């Protein structure tokens, strides 16, 4: 099956009608190591969305970091304090969501379209608050390789970490099931990419630069980025560009 990219969407292919496969990445928490991560994305011509809280682990996110990353990548909001929004009173959750949008837009002087639910936690009330704040889409931590039409349920594929066995298991069940893939996130990510490249869908790598550093996984990450880069018939998009496809009439059909 084929899908049409919306007008104005940038990608690495000359033809605006592409086959099957979308590649996107997203990175959370706003750490200085994001600069190292961003250099790898640039090296391999990949796009990324960096989701920024104003405060993470009791430390304010550096505004210069946000400015620097915004020169080449999309910036998304990740609440003010990286709290579990579902555990807060709705008034406080609304302030976390709306305040994060206002903070970033004042900092960058342009619209912030995408939101990422902190810790992946959300419910119908939180989803409504994200919409009311003026966001156009939101990323969750729900496993997703089929492109849906709900921009507030943009899910993820492989995680750049062994932190989530459930995500690796779901990826393995959808692709080339192997014990090595279950125990090694980079092997799992490549298997899942091969499956999507053949069958169609969205390959959405996500993670945290601090976690990659903690696990000494920079070489694994570079191997994966190199593996998925510069493939014909693949659209390399930011999260907001995926959102345009999910919510736009340009979708023809894309099935796994």
Give the structure's gist in a few sentences:
With 256 residues, this protein is of the alpha/beta class. It is 40% helix and 19% strand. The protein has helices at residues 34-43, 63-70, 90-108, 124-132, 165-174, 179-183, 185-199, 209-214, 218-228, 239-247, and strands at 2-4, 17-19, 21-28, 49-52, 55-56, 59-60, 74-77, 114-116, 137-143, 154-156, 201-207, 234-236.
Q: Compute the number of strand runs.
A: 12
CATH topology: TIM Barrel
Domain unit count: 1
Query: Which consecutive residue ranges, at least 5 long each, have pLDDT under 50?
Result: 6-19, 249-256
First-to-last CA distance: 9 Å
Helix content: 25-40%
Look at the structure and name the CATH superfamily: Glycoside hydrolase/deacetylase
**Largest sheet entry:** 5 strands, parallel
- Estimate the strand proportion: 15-25%
- Indicate the mean pLDDT: 87
- Kindly report the oligomeric state of this protein: single chain
Tertiary shape: globular
Number of contiguous helices: 10
| Radius of gyration, taken over Cα atoms and rounded to an integer in Å | 17 Å
User: CATH first level: which class?
Assistant: Alpha Beta
Secondary-structure content class: alpha/beta
What is the CATH architecture term? Alpha-Beta Barrel
The string of secondary-structure elements, in order, is EEEHEEEHEHEHEEHHHEHHEH
